[in-house]
Amino acid sequence: MLHDHGNKVHVGFNRIFHVECLSAASLSGPYLRTVDRTLVLARRSRKGGCTTLGSAVDLRSRKPKSRQMSQLFPPSHRAALERLTAFVPKAGRDYAARRNYDLGPGNHTHVSTLSPYLRCRLITESEVVNAVLHRHSPAAAEKFVQEVFWRTYWKGWLELRPAVWTQYQMALDQAWNDVQTQAGLRARWENACRGETGIHCFDAWARELVETGYLHNHARMWFASIWIFTLELPWELGADFFLRHLLDGDPASNTLGWRWVAGIQTQGKTYLARTSNISKFTENRFHPKWQLAGEAIPRHAPLPPEPRSLPAGDAFDPALRTGFLLHEEDLSPGFFLNMVDPHACGVLQPQTKLGPLESAPHIAAFRSAALDDVTTRWSERLGPQAPLTSHSDVEAWAKAQNLEQIVTPYAPVGPVATLLAQASKSDHTPPIIQLMRPYDRMTWPHATRGFFPFKKKLPTFIADIQAA
Questions:
Q1: What is the CATH number of the domain that holds 400?
Q2: In what residue span(s) does the Cryptochrome/DNA photolyase FAD-binding domain sit (predicted)?
């Protein structure tokens, strides 16, 4: 996140946060129903019927159009490379000078907007760092390169402490239960999701998120701070709201970023959105005087466990009949296909169930199209392809193809890792071999403390990336 101390802004909270608005899902007890694109919060009455609770959440005027989203972020490797090429000339001192300014929809040309592509590795961190440092000196590109490594740091931190993800999911379930049973909380949550809080900047960011699928990093921080400290909503609901709607939504950067704002990630240190800071870095587009909380009291959560040892990744036997499992966590399969000659390819479809509610449709649309792009470009190397949606599908595919082992890119903490763990438990599924990239093996073990000890390793990381 950007760490804001007065007018000094230090970059940190992964430039990777985004939103839309509520997605519909059927739930037991109080639940969300879809009626002509209108979400109605309802629950069963004592007689077993249904009674609406509160007003409908009408998304018709704010629902992102797939065509518009694909124009903003075309889901292909070629589009990622074109965006990187266009940004590289600005990745040095221009970026350092203007990176903190949120100038509104259509005016984010001073930042890279590469995050959706990095999220699913349509383009890799190493590619981005190499391209930028081919054009700029390490000193000139320092701020942007640090942004790339902030994302890496978050990934490594959570990979060393997977219990934090589990704790978040449990707390989210409790917060969702509270939304269904507490009218005041429900009303604040609905208004925040609709962008109808009366706080002009917050509501404008909500609309931008819905209409464009993107939000500037600094605005994401302000949004999170207002959600937690001004609207007094549980941070877990905000993290869930972002994760279900971000094109670049990532369990590590998203969860840990919200924890940082709430004063949990760095114990007792919160991020408070201030009128003067918002006014300055939006160039006076917004000036929410007297509308924001004046203090940020840290929220509470269990202390994180001590970091575990990083899983090393698995070894595979090239003599065995092998299937390659492609998934949304890593869509640059060339590294793996240089080692593996698969007999068949399973294509794991995007995971849409990240909590009580389904992800927004544009998330699956983007990642499905990205998967299609990858399988088309690599079709000759991947072999016969089969779409898979669940751990039981993985088992059935392996049986149908007579596979002796399944090789797949390493899946960090999140829904794909959970699915692979479930598939591995079956006696009928062959060994699932997760191969870890050298970049992750090099960087993640150093995310044992805060970012600044990690940052001291950046010259070594960069030298290894350039040497490779």
A1: 3.40.50.620
A2: 144-283
The CA distance from 326 to 111, in Å, is 30
Beta-bridge partners for 52? 42
Query: Domain for residue 253, yes or no?
Result: yes
Residues 357 and 263 in one domain: no
Instruction: Extract the annotated binding site.
Output: 95, 144, 248-250
How far, in Å, CA of 340 to CA of 345, rounded?
Answer: 11
The domain of 228 spans 162-282
Does the model's pTM come out above 0.70?
yes
In the chain, the number of structural domains is 3
Task: Give the pLDDT band of residue 42 (cuts 50, 70, 90).
Answer: very low
* pLDDT score recorded for residue 36: 28
Q: Which of 280, 293, 225 is nearest to 3 (CA)?
A: 225
Cβ neighbours of residue 285 closer than 8 Å, sequence gap 6 or more: 103, 104, 201
State residue 58 phi and psi, 5-degree precision.
-90, 120
Find where tokens 């006014």 sit: 279
Which domain CATH number covers 194?
A: 1.10.579.10
**Could you tell me if 183 and 54 are in contact, meaning their C-beta atoms sit under 8 angstroms apart?**
yes
Distance from CA of residue 381 to its chain's centroid? Answer: 29
Quote the pLDDT of residue 55.
Answer: 31
Grade residue 246 by pLDDT with cuts at 50, 70 and 90: confident
Taking CA 327 as the corner, what is the angle to CA 175 and CA 319, rounded to the nearest 5 degrees? 135
Identify whether residues 119 and 174 lie together within a single domain. Answer: no
DSSP 88: G
**DSSP assignment, residue 227?**
I
User: DSSP secondary-structure letter at 446?
Assistant: G
> Quick one: which of 124, 136, 40, 49 has its CA closest to 81?
124
Indicate the pairing of strand 31-35 with strand 38-44: antiparallel
d(CA 390, CA 92): 43
CA distance 116 to 14: 12
Binding residues for FAD: 95, 144, 248-250
Of 106, 376, 359, nearest to 248 (Cα)?
359
Q: Which of 304, 313, 312, 264 is nearest to 448 (CA)?
A: 304
Answer whether 65's CB lies under 8 Å from 71's CB: no
